[in-house]
């Protein structure tokens, strides 16, 4: 290799800097040596951390031995750091070094290696009020500490976020049918009829039926009292039948088959000022609580 | 019968392929029997069977109602007439008992293979019926049919190993698992197997999803419930329980008890035998309790909910058309009604409106007294009674606390079949019914 003879010459004037050695190694290697040699020489630079700590590097020595008097960057660097002879570690020089003469596993060697002194860690200056009150510490001085600022900001943001979230529960436009709606005059509900046309829009059956001997018009909520499915009115069997678990209710809403534990609920119903029946979904009446006796829960025919 | 002239034409191709597949599998089976086992008699038998399947396949391919192999109308009507929740549940319990008692017979490979083929042929014959095919061949339900066969297979494998082990233990030999206890490595043995399985199953699922697309239903609506409205298949056992119980009990308490009970098992189990190997004889109580809870109370209820529950959650026979107009009279009454009105012939105790709260509460307790007493007897008095009679040995081994937990878990599990039986026999709705606070049992 051409670089082998040059390096000691440069080093003769004194110890060259690492940058110099690197530049020299690159300059010597690139033009003359074939691409394979360049690749070999450059490879160890990819992991300088591995090459850094050990001064007389056995891998470098073996590499040099393999390729004759090969100078690779790692060995040059290692030599420079250890203030040893700058330049490659050739096979001829190797016996001089006790470490290289008797190759040992690297793990053992790291124990004996002298560790270069660590650079002292720069002490960060902690600013205090005594040391000049500049602009940076203004907020701190104003509020007490940075923790206070952080938590205040967090709680304020959280509070505002919660308020904003709460606002979603009160939308500007409510796209649901009003709780009160008119279903028409009493004449539209002949005796014994279950009106199912309000189910899709309002979820209510308006029934004109016989409840314990009294003819009444009442509005039944279309929610099964078992698990909340929508039963269907079976005209042929004169019953409400739930498709989910087979609960059945008579026309008056009283449960008689399946697992439903209590009768269907009633909505409030009254005759409005214009003579029409008005159902109010905001109030419900439970039979098991004796609320069906409430005059608001039915309209006498 | 509800029948469609185009139905057979559409199904015949599938049925032909189905019978051909059975024939092929049996042909391979016969060949293996001949080459590996050298049992010529069985090999000839299954070859003849495969030939018969090929005949069935060609008949099915004809697509003519006169030729396609199907169950006779009389058989279908008989099955429909016989099937009902009572017959179904009693039948599954009876089947479970027979399978357990005669397990030595059923674990023989030839018996199991014959049963499998019989079930497959029966399924093929039944699928020529339109009403049956409509339910069983629904894309949602096809995996469940497959799962039934898979479950039967795995139960059979485990039972077979247990029977073999029981015989060996009776002879004083170690169980099979102790002989082949060679350790294998997680990597690469297990991980490679899992990887291959993952790839194979993913490919299979992709092909399945393309060939048998899951149906989309109508858009959801809060005021229109599909009829029948069914839970996912793995929850159909729960949905069946909901027919007999209040939502809080069947939907919350019982499922939680199932989970907690399964978690409690290792702590309740005092039997050290059967650790690391299959055995039935060494742990009969544990085996029977678990298999009853799993096979009878969970699996058969899923099958019932999937294939036999139709519109309005009525029970439909396997060959019955799912008409939403089927009328079934199920006049259910609560125990309080039965006790006060039917037996004592007096009105239900009812608080005067406006009475103070303690008076109302007292009235409720009086009204529900028969149910509360029955429940108390069942859950409080019965465990000690069992401890001094049937479970005397277990009580001595387990100690008071473990025994009481075990006994109560078991009694609560048994409350499901008991309640079902009470519903069928007495039309009982709830034993304790307090709708005022939505508490029913």
- Biggest sheet character of chain A: 7 strands, antiparallel
Q: Indicate the percent of residues in helices of chain B.
A: 55-70%
Q: Based on the structure, what is the oligomeric state of the protein chains?
A: heterodimer
Q: How many β-strand stretches of chain A?
A: 11
Terminal CA distance of chain B reads 40 Å
Report the principal-axis shape of chain B: globular
Mean pLDDT of chain B, nearest integer?
Answer: 90
Which protein chains make the most extensive interface, counting residues with beta carbons within 8 Å of the other chain's beta carbons?
Answer: A-B, 31 and 35 residues
Instruction: Please tally the helical runs of chain B, counting DSSP H or I stretches of 4 or more residues.
Output: 18
Strand content of chain A: 15-25%
CATH superfamily heading of the largest domain in chain A = Rieske [2Fe-2S] iron-sulphur domain
Instruction: Supply the number of structural domains of chain A.
Output: 2
Order of secondary-structure elements of chain B: HHHHHHHHHHHHHHHHHHEE
Question: Which spans of chain A have pLDDT < 50 for at least 5 consecutive residues?
Answer: 1-13, 31-68, 97-101
Number of strands of chain B: 2
CATH architecture of the largest domain in chain A: 3-layer Sandwich
């Amino acid at each position: 290799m051409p670089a082998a003879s040059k390096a000691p010459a440069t080093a003769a004037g004194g110890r060259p800097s690492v940058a110099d050695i690197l530049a020299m190694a690159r300059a010597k290697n690139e033009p003359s040596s074939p691409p394979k040699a360049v690749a070999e020489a450059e490879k160890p630079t990819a992991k300088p951390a591995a090459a850094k700590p050990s001064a007389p590097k056995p891998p470098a020595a073996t590499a040099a031995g393999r390729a004759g008097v090969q100078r690779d960057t790692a060995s040059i660097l290692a030599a420079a750091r250890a203030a040893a002879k700058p330049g490659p570690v050739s096979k001829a020089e190797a016996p001089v070094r006790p470490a290289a003469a008797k190759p040992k596993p690297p793990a053992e060697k790291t124990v004996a290696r002298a560790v270069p002194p660590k650079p002292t860690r720069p002490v960060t200056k902690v600013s205090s009020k005594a040391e000049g009150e500049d602009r940076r510490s203004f907020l701190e001085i104003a509020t007490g500490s940075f923790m206070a600022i952080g938590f205040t900001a967090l709680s304020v943001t959280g509070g505002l976020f919660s308020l904003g979230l709460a606002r979603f529960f009160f939308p500007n436009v409510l796209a649901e049918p009003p709780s009160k709606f008119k279903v028409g005059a009493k004449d539209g509900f002949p005796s014994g009829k279950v009106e199912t046309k309000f189910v899709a829009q309002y979820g209510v059956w308006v029934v004109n039926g016989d409840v314990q001997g009294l003819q009444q018009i009442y509005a039944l909520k279309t929610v099964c009292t078992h698990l909340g499915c929508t039963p269907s009115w079976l005209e042929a069997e004169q019953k409400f039948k739930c498709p989910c678990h087979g609960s059945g209710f008579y026309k008056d809403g009283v449960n008689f088959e399946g697992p439903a534990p209590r009768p269907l609920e009633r909505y409030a119903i009254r005759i409005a000022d214009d003579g029409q029946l008005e159902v109010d979904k905001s109030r419900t009446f439970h039979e098991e609580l004796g609320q069906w006796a409430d005059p608001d829960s039915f309209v006498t025919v | 019968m509800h029948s469609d002239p185009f139905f057979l034409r559409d199904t015949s191709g599938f049925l032909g392929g189905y019978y051909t597949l059975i024939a092929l599998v049996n042909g391979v089976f016969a060949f293996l029997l001949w080459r590996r086992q050298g049992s010529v008699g069985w090999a000839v038998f299954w070859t003849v069977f495969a030939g018969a399947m090929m005949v069935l396949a060609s008949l099915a391919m004809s697509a003519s109602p006169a030729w396609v192999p199907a169950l006779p109308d009389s058989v279908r009507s008989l099955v429909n007439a016989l099937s009902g929740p009572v017959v179904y549940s009693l039948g599954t319990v009876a089947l479970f008992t027979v399978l357990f008692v005669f397990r030595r017979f059923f674990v023989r490979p030839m018996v199991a293979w014959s049963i499998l083929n019989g079930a497959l042929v029966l399924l093929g014959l039944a699928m020529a019926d339109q009403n049956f095919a409509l339910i069983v061949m629904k894309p949602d339900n096809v995996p469940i049919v497959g799962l039934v066969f898979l479950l039967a297979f795995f139960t059979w494998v485990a039972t077979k190993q247990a029977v073999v082990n029981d015989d060996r233990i009776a002879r004083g030999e170690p169980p099979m698992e102790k002989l082949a206890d060679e350790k294998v490595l997680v990597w690469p043995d297990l991980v490679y197997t899992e990887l291959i399985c993952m790839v194979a199953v993913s490919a299979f699922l992709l092909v399945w999803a393309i060939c048998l697309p899951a149906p989309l239903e109508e858009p959801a609506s809060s005021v229109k419930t599909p009829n029948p409205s069914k839970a996912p298949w793995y929850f159909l056992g729960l949905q069946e329980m909901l027919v007999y119980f209040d939502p809080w009990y069947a939907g919350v308490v019982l499922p939680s008890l199932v989970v907690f009970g399964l978690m409690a098992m290792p702590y309740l189990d005092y039997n050290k035998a059967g650790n690391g190997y299959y055995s039935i004889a060494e742990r009969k109580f544990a085996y029977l309790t678990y298999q009853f809870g799993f096979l009878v109370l969970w699996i058969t209820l899923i099958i019932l909910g999937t294939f036999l529950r139709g519109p309005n959650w009525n029970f439909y026979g396997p060959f019955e058309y799912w008409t939403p107009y089927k009328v079934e009279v199920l006049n259910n009454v609560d125990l309080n009604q039965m006790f006060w009105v039917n037996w004592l012939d007096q009105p239900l105790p009812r608080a005067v409106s406006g009475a103070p709260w303690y008076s109302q509460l007292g009235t409720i307790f009086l009204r529900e007294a028969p149910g509360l007493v029955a429940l108390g007897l069942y859950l409080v008095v019965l465990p000690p009674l069992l401890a001094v009679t049937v479970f005397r040995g277990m009580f001595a081994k387990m100690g008071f606390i473990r025994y009481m937990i075990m006994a109560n878990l078991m009694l609560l599990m048994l409350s499901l079949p008991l309640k079902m039986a009470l519903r069928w026999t007495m039309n009982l709705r709830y034993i304790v019914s307090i709708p005022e606070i939505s508490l029913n049992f």
